[in-house]
Amino acid sequence: MTNHWVDIKNADLILIMGGNAAEAHPCGFKWVMEAKATRKAKLVVVDPRFTRSAAVSDFYAPIRPGTDIAFLGGVINYLLSNDKIHHEYVKAYTNASFLIHEGFAFTDGLFSGYDEAKRSYDQASWQYQVDGQGFAQVDDTLQNPQCALQILKRHYARYTPEAVSQVTGTPQADFLKICEFIADTSAPNRTMTICYALGWTHHTVGTQNIRTMAIIQLLLGNMGMAGGGVNALRGHANVQGLTDQGFYTEMLPGYLGSPSDSDKTREEYLAKRTPKPVRPNQMNYGQNFPKWHTSLMKAWFGGAATAENGFCYDWLPKKEAAYDVLALFEQMDRGRMNGFFCQGFNPQASVPHKAKVDGALAKLKFLVVIDPLATETAEFWKNHGELNDAKPETIQTEVFRLPATCFAEQDGTFTNSSRVIQWHWKGADGPGESLSDLDIIAGVFVRLRALYAKDGGAFPEPVLNLAWPYRIPHQPSPEEIAMEISGKALADVPDPKDATKVLAKAGEQLAGFAQLRDDGSTAAGNWIYCGMWSQAGNLTARRDPSDPTGLGQSHNWGFAWPANRRILYNRASCDAAGKPWDPGRAVIKWDGTKWTGNDIPDMRPDARPEEGVMPFIMNQEGVARLFGVERMLDGPLPEHYEPFETPLGLNPMHPNNPLAVSNPAARIYPGVMESLGKADEFPHVATTYRLVEHFHFWTKHAVLNAITQPEQFVEIGEELAREKGIGNGHRVRVRSKRGQILAVAVVTKRVRSFSVNGRKVHMVGIPFHWGFRGATRPSHLVNELTPFIGDANIQTPEFKAFLVNIEPA
Amino acid sequence: MAWQSLDIQRRSATTTPAPGARQATEVAKLIDISQCIGCKACQVACMEWNDLRGEVGHCAGVYDNPGDLDSQTWTLMRYTELENNGRLEWLIRKDGCMHCQDPGCLKACPAPGAIVQYANGIVDFHQENCIGCGYCITGCPFNIPRLSEKDHKAYKCSLCSDRVAVGQSPACVKTCPTGALHFGSKEAMKDHAEHRIADLKSRGFSNAGLYDPPGVSGTHVMYVLQHADHPEWYSGLPRDPKISPWVGIWKGLAKPLAIGAMAAITLASLFHYIIKGPNEVSKETEKEVENETRS
Q1: What was the pLDDT predicted at A277?
Q2: CA A425 to CA A541: how far, in whole Å?
Q3: In Å, what is the CA distance from A511 to each residue of A283, A478, A486, A556, B80?
Q4: Chain B within 8 Å of A174 (Cβ-Cβ)?
């Protein structure tokens, strides 16, 4: 979240789209109700089905799964053509005025630079026009046809209400009503918050779904404002902590891009990731990258990391290919991976196309499952009849199960969607021989290290030299780890403004990431968490709910990254002169000498407004990007593409270009196209989702949850039920090109058909909490049905839109 | 069980006068249906606090799980899909004991002390006195109490009288994540409901209102309804609940008559004993019995 849970109470309009906060986040949802009760806020829900969020909304509209960009593109068009944008904000704080390369084009669904063979774009024409000094050219009149705002207008002019309705199936009147709700928050003192979750990410256009909303919030001037922002509601208690800490191969801790084969030296690696300013006077905070990376290497390799050896850069693994979850199982399936540590992860239930996952797991030599629960994956080899039709005699994989404690049985931290890191205390001992994840991993490490020390082996240096300063090597304490992640001074850190002063003495915990250095004098395991355990102690353990701001900021509750800041980009909550757009909800302000107020300013504290230092300090421009010049692999502006399994067979926005039916830049592994179904055989759109009664695949092991939602069901509309002769409560079989599941049919008014591109499309809603292990009624895993394809940028699987057929069982 | 901090104001099948020295405040739970997301956290909290574990059942094509109230399910979310003025509404009602000010169950109960009403208004079952006759079910205008198949005693929501007795709110209220459940004095709950109803009216629910039915002299569990003119839309919430007339007949006429008849039989037996002396078993019969026992 750019804002935070409690801040939702400050909103005038809450839009829930691409998520279902009432069911997936019932506790956080209380702040939606608070906004309704105390601010007279309106709640609008856009979702393929009438959810429990919709049940308490002021307005609900249906949308065909996988068409959010069409809907939101239509909103952009509405805002621009009805002049419902926050002009001063857009002009000052976005790249609206920036001139884009003359070579940029968008033709029949493809952006300039497309390479069909590689399914990727050359982004050379997606850049700014620059002057001799490398600064971007701007047109303050916003009239130049190459300026970002004009390109935006042209791009979305095609998204008329008629076109939106034709693609999304949302009735035009409903769409326009929602546009009015949203447009109302373009007033400087009105804000909308958007709460989304995996309903936006689980698509081959997932990242672009979110980009579209970011553009809308910028046009409305809602970023940085209390009650505004783009707010990702995270789906696990600590999935925010997981991404922050870089528990995946693309990133090192703190969102530092991990090195790849092409980054031969530390210098090359740092140069590529340390951005140059593209506008004068901007903070360009990313210029500090070397400090963050060097401090990370000092935390990992301690005394072994020196300036002379490039702080052990050569010891870091360099990616030669993708290592996202689809890539992992693809490699496993091709027999290129022998062993797999599966920690707190149930891939049979969480990775699409179960038959493929089963085949991949069967090719492993060994599988280690570290989990508190008896997961399906740990028994992928075992025959559970029709539900898991494995043949144990043909599977050679050796499976080791290491029972772990659950979160309530260990100390540690959770980071919630608000970016607030909170210490949690053990509530009970774990059962039997279970150990904490920390103890299990440390135990494996110290044994491995001993083997390397004794026998040598290939490339033992990184293992033997890994800093392991814990009091009990096989049992590091969560406190030791937290202090290491937060960071400390290895030598005295002098004040750059006054050499006679020392900011932190050697051995002290650092107060924040501003104290990090690139000379090896500081160590921090994650720069964005720096300061969470300072000389003042463990700030994540604070539990003071007092809120003198009245905005719900509670700065003494836990520790929010970065720098205990609760609302990101909060400089944008003020006009250019530093006066809050809405004095009633002032986040910060310029008091004549410094930035101050109800939050930690997201701005150099002494940056006078006249200096023109812009609020989006992590961007080289200092302003936010309506036109995405970097990072997005599938286009600088979001465009509607159909899901890879489309019920239409074409993209109504580009009906004549077969290359632009689905995301042209999405990665397709060999064999995947053959595993995708067509609408003639599988005519219905399926979407998967969570229910409030369960948490993923965990709570089916708990009797109380099992009582409240005992059995796999699917939801269909009354019309489809009539057509197929399916009665409410009847058993049905749902098939996709990849597999099938049995379920109970819930026939409901909450699921309806969509009128799309001149035809009727039915939907099958598939909640996914059941499996063949647990206290609930045994059932298939829903991944029997789902397609093995992911988002073009980050490879999140397309769980939310695929094709199925349904029949009475 | 009885708690000393809660005075008993009424007791089934008992004529002993109620204590009256202490000042009890009438309490109430307010269920604001317009803020309820149907998450069933209240259902789970109820099972946890009261040590209840039902069967893991089946999906019957609806979200209502279990399918009905039972001895292990004292509160249950009931879901209704309603098309109203061209818009879909999903009305979700938390069902359970309404804790009537004039409790039909207590009036119908023939077992002394099996059902009590505390001075704060809570109606509670004391299962150790329950004879399992099921009259409370007949007496209840909301169809709430259920007999246990295990011990043949009647069970229902106690409004967590054990928690309330020590100054805590009921488990369901404590756990509700959205603020749909409130607990306090009945007056305070009515005040809160007024604010909520004003808010709902401002959002277009012109018939929003409080459900506190006078037919049972009001209840200690009340609903804020978006459509107070149609309580039956909410899974058949009764429009004008009243205690079944049979309870009145039983209590007002039949019971005294029956008691009179029983008293007459007792008296007649006594006279019979005095006049005729005890019944005696003949020697022949005794012999027959002995022979049967041996064979």
Answers
A1: 93
A2: 9
A3: 21, 20, 9, 15, 55
A4: no
Q: Domain A325-409+433-465: give its CATH code.
A: 3.40.50.740
What is the spatial distance between Cα B115 and Cα B123, in angstroms, rounded to a whole number? Answer: 7
Q: Quick one: fold of B8-243?
A: Alpha-Beta Plaits (3.30.70)
Note whether A777 contacts B47, CB cutoff 8 Å: no
User: Do A325-409+433-465 and A658-808 have matching folds?
Assistant: no
Q: Which of B30, B178, B197, B224 to mutate to test the interface with A (most CBs of A within 10 A)?
A: B178
Q: What is the pLDDT of residues A437-455, one digit of tens each?
A: 999 999 999 999 999 999 9
> Dihedral of CA A582/A585/A591/A595: which sign?
negative
| Neighbouring C-alpha atoms within 13 Å toward the C-beta of B268 | 6
**Domain layout of chain A by residue ranges:** 325-409+433-465, 658-808
Closest-CA residue of chain B to A691? B39
Above 70 in pLDDT, residue B2? no
Q: Are the C-beta atoms of residues B88 and A774 closer than 8 Å to each other?
A: no
Give tens-digit pLDDT for A88-101: 999 999 999 999 99
Facing residue for B66 by CB, picked from A36, A707, A750: A707
For the question of an ipTM over 0.85, the answer is yes
* CATH class for the domain made up of A658-808: mainly beta
Q: Which residues contact A369 (CB under 8 A, 6 or more apart)?
A: A342, A375, A377, A378, A399, A400, A401, A402
Q: What is the pLDDT of residue B249?
A: 76
- B52, amino acid identity: L
CA distance A193 to A195: 7
Q: Inter-chain contact A27–B59, Cβ cutoff 8 Å?
A: no
For residue A29, give the nearest of B55, B177, B196 by CB distance. B177
Query: What DSSP element (H or E) covers A764?
Result: strand A763-767
